[in-house]
Amino acid sequence: MSKQINVALIGNPNTGKTSVFNALTGLNQKVGNYPGITVEKKQGLCKLPRGVKAHIIDLPGTYSLNASSLDENVVIELLLNKNDKDFPDVAVVVSDVENLKRNLLLFTQIKDLEIPTILVINMSDRMRKKGILLDIPLLEKELNTKIALVSTRKREGIDNLKQLIADYRKLSTEPCLKASEIDSVYFDSLKEAFPNQLLYKLWLVITQDVNFGKTDRNEIETINSFKTKSKADLKRLQQKETIKRYQFINNTLKKGQTVDLASATDLRIKLDRILTHKVWGYLIFGVILLTIFQAIYDWAQVPMDLIDRLFVFLSEWTKSALPSGVFTSLLAEGIIPGLGGIVIFIPQIAFLFLFISLLEESGYMSRVVFLMDRIMRRFGLSGKSVVPLISGTACAIPAIMATRNIESWKERLITILVTPFTTCSARLPVYLIIIELVIPEGRFLGLGYQPLTLMLLYIIGFATALVSAWMLDRILKIKKKTFFVVEMPNYKLPLFKNVAITVIEKTKAFVFGAGKIILAISIILWFLASYGPGDDFNNAAEIVSAQSSSKDFSSEELREEIASYKLEHSYIGIAGHAIEPAIRPLGYDWKIGIAIVSSFAAREVFVGTLATIYSVGSGDQETIKSRMAGEVNPILGGPLFNFASGISLLLFYAFAMQCASTLAIVKKETNTWKWPMLQLFIMSGFAYVVALVAYQLLI
Amino acid sequence: MNTIIQNILVFSALAYAIWYLLRKFGILPKRKKASSKACGGDDGCGCH
């Protein structure tokens, strides 16, 4: 049996750590969460020389082992806990060739934990362009380790890295800085109290409030022979440690690195000047957004139509191939149309993630964050709020968790409360289908009305988040003090592999995450639509036949009349009619009402719900779009999905708080039900009023 | 026979769907996974 070793990939943010992870593992990776917390855990397998297998963990990016966030805590807790099944046999610290000095701080800290550590110097292909020269043998000697020069872009150095990992036993575990150099008196007494423990680990336990082995901070404080210092003194010692480390790093780089600025050819400054310009910056960002939305519509049309037809075919085939009965009906009229309602949006969602990933990979997204900070400040938000607000376009849940790095509680709370206004990917299916039904296909200055409407909805969501933040800043009486630091990574040509993996992972997470809920809700809805109480439902065929005896119905028309009558008297029909008075002023019928109620679990359920309800009620095999387009307003006549009701629905979905998982995460992050309940009632109440006003004005 | 089997399948699917949603939205407690070697439970590693 071949041996498997644990490898931890560690590094500062933006050093290309994930690219190295992708290069080592390819598609042999899985994403999960660390136990008990919601920090993403990426792990994968890699084959090394001599038949050795490596289990690789891509740890969250961190600047040092002085943890200040949950993500950073994950790194330090793993490195301090030898009993952890993921404890690394070897640590691979990924650094960026242009930021070696800063990146080496983390390297020296990890090396001092006496874990075999390899230094990866990534983006080595940029060395010549930046006028950087490295004396690798000398650096290896000074740092007492092995160095792998890697360029993930050019696929260089990965085999060498694999070889170094396989030979990890040859690596020295000598520390870079002896802990006693920080403060000899203090560390001597620490060593006396805990003779069998590694001093630097003890130091981290004392200063970071984390545990390792069976030793924790409280235990250390109860040892009589050892007097720990006050918090202020510990801080001073930490600063001293950092200064000592940088002295060591400076000395090392002085010998092993030369930077010739005269030979550096840098486009970065020129590009930054334009892309973060107070006028051009916003204009360019606007043009990029327009292009993205136009492309989402133009490119996704063909695959969407194909998927739509495929599900119609599947539904028909199920009916013809399986013996008739209730389970066949459940499959053909419940599950397949319900799932079709979500699968159809895969192309558009994949394109959206493709563009977001390209913007992130190229380094442009950090410039957007910088640009937006100027606006954020005016609305009482932190520059750091931009990240949750932008990542909220994918999903509000990770976005709300991303607020953890906002130091000011007031700014963090405001960001949590307003993030659900940004247009998440779950709203996308609702927007796309309604826009296609009610907005004409014409163009304005080469741009389609439909993509423009979609972009407008994104802007409305973002603007509402800002205005709400401004109001909350004035309403909430909490003191605040904050600052904003953002790292501007270099511009890079996006790596195809990284982009592809991001698109696949994100789309998969959306489809499978939403798919299970939609499948469950489709089954329940089909049941509620296919069964009903009393004689009206059970004797529907006789009642309709008797009522229509005077009318000259064909057998097909009669069958549809019976199906429609049964649906109206089914459980779902009864529930729908009960809520109809509340939604009729908004231009909706009871079927839309049911879809809205069920989508309070998750927004994306809306389309699947309508697909299921219409499928049960309809005898024809039609696509979801044609079924919805064919629905008639029972009171006013004409299409149910017209301009007024469509705009009303779009605005309702733009503002309503319809995501049980988001409410749960807000409760978890704020530790009270007060804020999620306020979100639910205020956002949904606001959505109702806006949708009502829109419909009444447009009708 | 066919009708009975189809009914059993439908009601089983319905029961599973209801159970799944109740669990998903926290109305029913989720079953805890067996603790792994470390960090999955109190195994004396000191990190809990």
From TrEMBL, chain A:
<feature type="transmembrane region" description="Helical">
    <location>
        <begin position="339"/>
        <end position="359"/>
    </location>
</feature>
<feature type="binding site">
    <location>
        <position position="23"/>
    </location>
    <ligand>
        <name>Mg(2+) 2</name>
    </ligand>
</feature>
<keyword id="KW-0813">Transport</keyword>
<feature type="binding site">
    <location>
        <begin position="122"/>
        <end position="125"/>
    </location>
    <ligand>
        <name>GTP</name>
    </ligand>
</feature>
<dbReference type="InterPro" id="IPR006073">
    <property type="entry name" value="GTP-bd"/>
</dbReference>
<keyword id="KW-0342">GTP-binding</keyword>
<feature type="transmembrane region" description="Helical">
    <location>
        <begin position="509"/>
        <end position="529"/>
    </location>
</feature>
<keyword id="KW-0408">Iron</keyword>
<feature type="transmembrane region" description="Helical">
    <location>
        <begin position="454"/>
        <end position="472"/>
    </location>
</feature>
<keyword id="KW-1003">Cell membrane</keyword>
<dbReference type="InterPro" id="IPR030389">
    <property type="entry name" value="G_FEOB_dom"/>
</dbReference>
<feature type="binding site">
    <location>
        <begin position="11"/>
        <end position="18"/>
    </location>
    <ligand>
        <name>GTP</name>
    </ligand>
</feature>
<comment type="function">
    <text>Probable transporter of a GTP-driven Fe(2+) uptake system.</text>
</comment>
<keyword id="KW-0472">Membrane</keyword>
<feature type="transmembrane region" description="Helical">
    <location>
        <begin position="279"/>
        <end position="297"/>
    </location>
</feature>
<feature type="domain" description="FeoB-type G">
    <location>
        <begin position="4"/>
        <end position="171"/>
    </location>
</feature>
<keyword id="KW-1133">Transmembrane helix</keyword>
<keyword id="KW-0460">Magnesium</keyword>
<dbReference type="GO" id="GO:0046872">
    <property type="term" value="F:metal ion binding"/>
</dbReference>
<dbReference type="Pfam" id="PF07664">
    <property type="entry name" value="FeoB_C"/>
</dbReference>
<keyword id="KW-0812">Transmembrane</keyword>
<feature type="transmembrane region" description="Helical">
    <location>
        <begin position="678"/>
        <end position="698"/>
    </location>
</feature>
From TrEMBL, chain B:
<protein>
    <submittedName>
        <fullName>FeoB-associated Cys-rich membrane protein</fullName>
    </submittedName>
</protein>
<feature type="transmembrane region" description="Helical">
    <location>
        <begin position="6"/>
        <end position="22"/>
    </location>
</feature>
<keyword id="KW-0472">Membrane</keyword>
<keyword id="KW-0812">Transmembrane</keyword>
<keyword id="KW-1133">Transmembrane helix</keyword>
